[in-house]
């Protein structure tokens, strides 16, 4: 059974700053932890699943990942830290990923697709095209 998820993909920018206690704590850790804390503070995720498939023979992974860039208060807050080098290099980008494979078989792909862009309109267009291609492939397997 194919399940299509309606997703609302946010703009690829993080603007809310971290609380001062949180910033002090993440400065002792890695830049990756700081990035994750910014995601939580801004209420966004890195991955949005747009399609699922429940089948005993096939696996489907279909999602969009978002690479966020820091702007506004978040950017000005992080410039003052040692984490700035890593976090300020991140550029806004979307990646649409879809992979249909046979369960339990390594590298046995029926369909594999990856598309990177900075344009949100392209993301939604590619998602719809990918959904149609997957549906056609699955109809031929039934």
Termini separation comes to 11 Å
Taken together, the total number of domains comes to 1
Which stretches are poorly predicted, pLDDT < 50 over at least 5 residues? none
What is the number of helical segments per DSSP (H or I, 4+ residues)?
5
Core attributes:
142 residues; alpha+beta; 7 strands
Helix and strand topology:
Blueprint: E1 2-4, E2 13-14, H1 20-27, H2 31-42, E3 47-53, E4 58-67, E5 69-70, H3 72-79, H4 84-87, E6 93-102, E7 109-117, H5 120-141
Parallel strand pairs: 2-5
Antiparallel strand pairs: 1-3, 3-4, 4-6, 6-7
Helix pairs in contact: 1-2
Give a description of the structure.
The protein has one domain (2-141). 38% of the residues lie in helices and 30% in strands. The protein has helices at 20-27, 31-42, 72-79, 84-87, 120-141; strands at 2-4, 13-14, 47-53, 58-67, 69-70, 93-102, 109-117. The strands form two sheets. Strands 1-3-4-6-7 form a five-stranded antiparallel beta sheet, covered by helices on one side. It is elongated and about 55 Å long.
Summarize the structure.
The protein is α+β, with helices and mostly antiparallel strands and 142 residues long. It has helices spanning 20-27, 31-42, 72-79, 84-87, 120-141, and strands spanning 2-4, 13-14, 47-53, 58-67, 69-70, 93-102, 109-117.
